[in-house]
Write a structure and sequence with these properties.
The protein has 16 helices and no strands. By secondary structure, it is an all-alpha fold. Helix 8 packs across helix 9. The longest helix is centred in the last third of the chain and has 17 residues, at 224-240.
Length: 279
Amino acid sequence: MQRITISRIRIRVRFILYPPYGKATDMQKGVKIKDYFDKNYIENLALQLQDAGAAIDASLFVKDALSAQDSAFGERLTAIAMAIDRHIPHYPTALTVMSKTFKEQLPSFAVMYSTGLRYAPFGKYVEIFAPRFPQYFDETVNFVELLTCRYTGEYAMRPVIEAFPEKSMTTLERWSMSDNAYIRRLSSECMRVGLPWAKKLTAAVSQWEKYVAVLDNLVCDYNPYVTRSVANNLNELYKYDKTLGGELTTHWQQKFGTKARSVIKHGTRWLRRSAKIGV
């Protein structure tokens, strides 16, 4: 039986409470989140891509993007991403076109998975295709930086870290010093060893000095969404390697003292639970 974690429950509840475009009344009760990406959404997306300069046949794009309408959320995103690739076959051009459809930055982290949901297929596109184009690494990370201010960018970035770990970690260190809280959170969130619905990632931890440097820049951040991500990093690190988790905890205690106390407390919750049940 698959174990259902609290984090997955919370995200699912968030989708129900905050459907696309912000108001609970915008989506009928009981409608699944995957059904947001219906024919109407795809037709509007085709028009937006055209307005952004893409020379696509809207009717053919819609037909391609609708190929997985009887499938689950992830498969629908993949179908739309594959349609973008087929109809805008030049990777950097696709990134430019998609970025031109972006609206204003999110007003709050609380609406990331509601108001920002319209951009989910763009993240899936990068997730699938970015590792194939090392020559466009800069274009990729610049796009993800824009995306994360409007929708979560961590899923898009994880395959990039895996494919190009050294360059990616240098980028994450730069992001961790950004004035923008969405970008700072991304620098932590995308390198977690474990992330709900994502493949396990160890490439960031393998770049240990840079991994620690990124989190050092964020552990005392004023934004609670950022520090929660840092704590989740520590929590996942303990699950992966208790020795490394302990090393990072000791490092923070020595370097930051009581300023890191709340992050350490939240980041050692799995360790404390596992000690009680003898894991």
